[in-house]
Amino acid sequence: MRHLRILIFLVLAQAWTLSAPAADAPTYQDFDKPPHNYWQRPLKDPFSLLKPAMESGQIPLDRTSEKAFLVSLLKKLGIAPTSQMLLFSTTSLQLSLIKPENPRALFFNEHLYVGYIPRGRIEIVSLDPELGGIFYIFDIPRPGEPIRAERATRCMNCHAGEDSGYVPGLLVKSVLPGQRGGSLNAFRTGETGHQIPLEKRFGGWYLTGLPNFTSHLGNFIGQSSAGIITKIPVTPGERFDWARYPVATSDVLPQLLHEHQAGFVNRVVEAGYRARTVLAASKGKLALAQVKELDEQANKVVRYALFADEAPLPRGGVAGDAAFKADFLKSRRATPGGISLKDFDLQTRIFKHRCSYMIYSSIVQGLPAEMKQRVYQRLRAALDPQRPDKEYAYLPAAEKQAIHGILKATLKDW
Where are the domains of the chain? Predict the structure, then answer.
């Protein structure tokens, strides 16, 4: 009997160890519970606000073909087809349909992300100002059929894990896909953002527009034999027909911006969740440790927003698809002097003025006031040329002055 009790104790102890969070695990993982209430809180994201009119037929969409429906949907959501990125890794709920001969397409703007697979379902990630990613999936309707967009729950298995800081965020995977599906290797796991070296990115993605860019993992599948993995090149458009997709590109520039945005979104959404957790626990009286935690989160957001650890572009820079650049710049916010945060550099770095245009996004505006104030204060201090901050010494005084002037002229609550 004594041995049985010891065995039961050991089993229970092991089960507790496996299920209990690590000592340093974030306390805000329970995004579905107070104070966050992910599944109960009223939604304010763009797709949720459009959904009733879309499902009722008040918003007309072209149903003559899958591609026509996709193009009309993108137009209604304000997403440029030129943002198209194609990937063939089986990192999606619809993995059975994805292969080099039938790649998945992703499209995006600052607020919405759309996934499309020929003969598959439409996937949506829509950013709520307070909750982060809201996920939907639905069938492409045939003529006469209604749209029925269901809020996807299974997405949270991956989209609220380590890569996104355990809050509802964005994923950008880099893997070496096998010839028959699955992944033979994975790179940069647990990380998202522009700080990741380019040689660790793009595994499982098709890349176009990169004549000067050879050190990357894109445009490869893998073959394993006797424990040795061999990379096999795949050429965009060779195994599939570009005509099935809105445009004939999977340009490197949208992929660079997508990576940047994903890193920004995940850090800001995490800061919002942390702030709500701390504020609820403190009941209005922040302890010193809680103040420090909020300050650390704000600094993390600002460092990322100011491209502190941006991976350098390859020698010779990146040209970028001209049509995508034109679409991207349509929403630029310029000063009276004509400069903006969206002005490209593309020689050694992505932008001329190193402050993220995502500072205008709804997820920043939706931060709890205590966190948003800290972000703005830290940002002002980082850009102050009169009191140089060693942490931001990589920014010349003239660039700091230009960024501050842009924010003053274009950010309404700056």
Answer: 252-410
